[in-house]
Structures are given as C-alpha cells and as structure tokens.
Write the structure tokens for this entry.
Amino acid sequence: MDDLIKQAAQAIHDAQVVTILTGAGVSKESGVPTFRDALDGLWAKYDPQELATRYAFKTNPKLCWDWYEWRREMVGKAKPNAGHFALAKLQGYKTNLHLVTQNVDSLHEIAGSKNVVHLHGELSQTKCFDDCQGDPTIIDLETLVYDKDIGPPPCPHCFAYVRPAVVWFGELLPKHEYKLAHEYSQNCDVMLVVGTSGLVSPASQLPTIAKAKGSIIIEVNPDESMITRIADIKLDGASGEILPKVIEAMDELQK
Ligand code: OAD
C-alpha cells in the first residue's frame, strides 16, 4: 500500500491539472451515511422513489420535507473528517485543482476547500418547487415564518411549495455546474475519485471522460466500485485514513 500511496502522490505532484470527484464515502467518517452501503446506507432503509423525486414531493410533501429536515439537521451537526481536510490541503499545493462533489453536505467548504462544484445541489439551500423566478429560485428559509409541524412552507413569490435545492431522481443536473465538471474532467492530468460507487449518471461518467482524454485515474475506496475497473491506481481504504497519507507522501516530494 505504501508504494501505491507514493505512486499516487507522485502522479498528483507531476500533474498540471488535478480534478477531484467525491461521493458520499468521503463523509462517512463524519457520521453522514452513504446511500448504498448495504447495512447503513440511506437507500437500504428508505425508498428513493418515495422521497427523492418530484412526484414523491408532490404526493407527500410533509413526509419528504421532514426527511430532508432530518438530513439537514444531521449534516448540520457533522464535522469534516481527515479526508475532507486532506483534500482542502491539496488545493494549497496545486494551482489548478478542481473539486467536484456529488455530496449535498457542505463539509468540503467547512474543511476549507474553495470553489467546490456541487453537482447534486446543497442540503443547506431551499428553492421554489416551480423555480418561479428562474432556475434555481433560491429561497432563504430564515426569512420565512412557518410552522415546522405543517410541512414545507409556501414560496413567497408564487405560493408553490419550497423544496430542498438538491437534485432528485429524474431531474437534470444544474447546467452550469455540470458544464464545469465536464470541462474539468476533459482537461485534467489526474482525476482523484473518492468514495463514490459510480452508479449514478452523469456524475459516474466523468472518470471515463477523463480517462479517455489520457488522465491518470486514482481511486480511494475501501470497496470495489464501478470506477475500479478504469482506475490506474486503486487505494483500498477509508478516505480519512488514505488521503492524509497521500498528503504526507506529497510533503516528502516537496522537500
Ligand atoms: P454511494 O452510497 O452510492 O457510494 C458510496 C461509496 O463510498 C461506496 O463505493 C463505498 O464503498 C464508499 N465508501 C464507504 N465508506 C468509505 C470511506 N470511509 N471512504 C471512502 N469511501 C467509502 O454514494 P455516491 O456514489 O455518492 O444522489 O452516490 C451517488 C448519488 O447517489 C448521490 O449523490 C445521491 C445518491 O442517490 C442524489 O441524491 C441525487
């Protein structure tokens, strides 16, 4: 493993442009559950069709709203872990480093990462269900007076429901963010893929796009994923343990 960590550090050190793609695994050591882990993944306990689609929200707004309120609270209490901090530190080493995440928590930013591209939105934000003032019509919950026991508050502009500003199944990714992620994938020398199963498209296509353009793919994941078969370097383990070791190895190279 030490050799693989050194190889990964060397590849990152030599790269002009590094793009990082993260998924739920990077936040697991912060106590935020992943989606597909068999025992404690969210989708092992809850049905995404009942909670994470436009139809589900329209059909049962209170159930969906309450579920997202629960997640917002849980994520609000979570603290970044060593993996988040290592990625933030890496940004200090490379002028051209882009961080793209599928995660809706804001733990990368709290750890100090800048210009994070959120492909699936952010739990901390809410928006109008109909995006009545343009896509997205972000609504600041703090400005609304509403009864938490009733369910989602109405949009102050059009009275449609306010909903979490995250991407649901069947919805398109935010255009600007996806364009950036695509561009960063096409133009990197190394793509570091951390803690994603690689099962949700189009985010899961980004490593393939990078690979096709000649990028070295480094994966950090304790398990096999859909990315593993295209990874040039696979670092088996939890990101909170592996990523600080990569940073240590990079420190050695900087000396
Ligand atoms: P998944 O739950 O599908 O996958 C999590 C990955 O993290 C798995 O491959 C695990 O092996 C790995 N993992 C677990 N613990 C880890 C650790 N400590 N360090 C590193 N990796 C670890 O989560 P995502 O791939 O992020 O979409 O899921 C993609 C999308 O599916 C999510 O953004 C969400 C979900 O439906 C939306 O909500 C739109």
In short: The mean pLDDT is 95.
